[in-house]
Amino acid sequence: MMNDLGVYVHIPFCEKRCHYCDFTALVARDDEIDRYLEALAKELLGFQSLLSERLITTLYVGGGTPSRLSLSQTEKLLQLLEPYTGKLREFTIEANPESVTADKVGLWADYGVDRVSLGLQSSDAGWLKTLGRIHSAERVDEAVGLVRERIDSINLDLIYGLSPGDQTYLRSLDAILSLAPQHVSIYELEVYEHRPLAGMLTELVDSDESFEQFHRLRRKLEAAGFHRYEVSNFSLPGYEAKHNRRYWDRADTLGVGLGAHSLIGRRRFNNTTELPRYLAGDYIEQSESLSSDDILIECLMLGLRQLKGINYRDLLREHPQRSDLIDQYIQRQVALDRLELSGNVLRPTRIGLDLLDTVVLDFLSLL
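RESULT FIELD:
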């Protein structure tokens, strides 16, 4: 739909910041969270014209840890978002197992949340401690049970590539499958020098072993009935993440909250990551108008993350000045068995998905 809009709301607060995390996240006092919700309301008010004229189809509350909010803060947030929930096709909230309660789940469901994304990451007690997670594997089971009382659709996150020779990631996937989620996201561990985890690991997983670990997970998920519809995401049929697909399709999405990113038409903009600035009402950090080449690169970089691919004819129609270059590029990638062109659909092969960074860099080298 041309007039639809997705909305992302960032809640940056955590009980404790994980050792590997490089997202916009922080530990804050309750009074700071209250002030943040007030600032969030003011930011939304500034987009009232956009929000009122567009059909809002997806809403995603991410973090941070949105479930970190107290019950009263949770209700205040949901009341703030309620005017935008009338025509939703999906309403997701992220949560960590340690802060899921029956009362919070009840509020989520009462205000229309129909999907919960839980950060499991690992079921191994040792790795949970190393990663800085503060929940236990048993608490994940409890949290899933509480969510299922009111909300059916659940995503569980898993991290692999923790250590050379490690096998706990396979047991973690077994634990995930035993909980019967409809969606699983698997991410390779990224180690940042400025985060505590960098000083805690003695050896990192090399790219070959990481590749093998990923495909062991993929095979187990496919055997369990999941299909890989995006580089890192697997779902049962009909449970693909609608909001996340907006990013890969380059569909208009408004992001509000600390560090949130937006795409509206040809304009990309992102918010400040500094809490004092945000609380003072100084929201936007950077804004840019995308060139035709910027949009073309994004179409390839994001669209080819998905198994469904992108429309070849639309690509040529929207970028006629680059049509010869696009055809040259596609012919080369097809010959290398990285892309396939079927009718008007250009999609990555399995090899292409594994080499997606290279596939995109090859196009950039032609510009």
